[in-house]
Write a structure and sequence with these properties.
Blueprint (H helix, E strand, L loop, with lengths): L38 H8 L10 H19 L14 E6 L2 E6 L7 H27 L8 H8 L8 E5 L8 H5 L17 E6 L2 E6 L5 H14 L4 E6 L16
Antiparallel strand pairs: 1-2, 3-5, 3-6, 4-5
The chain binds zinc ion.
Length: about 260
């Protein structure tokens, strides 16, 4: 069967499909590939190719999630060593079995920097989402998902992403998940999805976002149903606009 790229819709031989396209970055422990991502699009997400950015979309994902992953791996009964990740923005040092995080000067708190990094991170979430959706459920080419393609692949428009803050202490994870992270769509009953919005759980974090065009009524309806679903598990939700809106160090684990 002829491969057709999930992002640009081009087919071989116009584009090639030689490289393995990790749906979740390899450096985060991702082991799955999507065969429907052409080499151009795969490179696009991994390269710093737009407007002299200092990091790629994949790097924005790695920066945020590596810290969570280290925290989770370190909290299990058996401590595991994982490959050293050279972070641009954070110093992570291990001492007496505890991780200490310090912020490098390159992680600026100015709103311009935070907005830009956050936008790359959001686009990265959508990249993982669509590629995993396609891999797991064999869908994703439908025109309704074009808003995702426009935002993640072509840097057009903006989509609101909600981040749900957990109630302290409530987190169910298997050790294995931190080693080889999986993107979950519907495992937990607190995740709510309908035809226009979806929620994913990844490395202890829950995000909710639109997956197609929507209007204000759709949005209100989604938020109210989602919040209802999350009673007892989550305290509130925030629109992520800065990287610091996401609890990347998983403070809620409180250990
Ligand atoms: Zn492509």
């Amino acid at each position: 069967m002829k491969a057709k790229c999930l992002w640009c819709f081009k087919e071989s031989p116009e584009v090639t499909f030689d490289k393995k396209a990790h749906t979740i970055p390899k450096s985060l422990g991702g082991q799955n590939f999507n065969n429907n991502v052409c080499d151009n699009c795969n490179e696009y997400f991994g390269n710093r190719n737009e407007r002299n950015r200092k990091y790629s979309i994949e790097e924005a994902l790695k920066e945020a999630f590596n810290i969570s992953r280290r925290r989770l791996l370190n909290s299990g009964k058996t401590k595991r060593k994982i490959g050293d990740f050279k972070s641009k923005f954070f110093d992570i040092k291990q001492r007496n079995g505890k991780y200490r995080l310090s912020i490098k000067p390159s992680f600026r708190f100015s709103s311009g920097f935070q907005k830009e990094l956050c936008r790359a991170f959001k686009r990265g979430l959508y990249k993982m989402f669509l590629e995993e959706l396609n891999r797991q459920k064999n869908i994703g080419y439908e025109p309704k998902f074009d808003v995702i393609r426009q935002f993640a692949r072509y840097d057009k428009g903006d989509l609101p992403v909600l981040y749900f803050n957990r109630v302290i202490g409530i987190m169910m994870m298997f050790d294995r998940e931190a080693e080889t992270p999986i993107l979950f769509f519907d495992r937990m009953k607190y995740l709510y999805s309908n035809d226009k919005f979806t929620e994913i759980e990844f490395l202890g974090h829950v995000f909710g976002f639109p997956i197609s065009k929507f209007n204000i009524e759709d949005y209100k309806n989604y938020v109210s149903k989602s919040i209802e679903n999350k009673k007892g598990f989550f305290t509130d939700a925030v629109f992520i606009q800065k990287m610091t809106d996401v609890d990347i160090t998983l403070k809620i684990m409180n250990d």
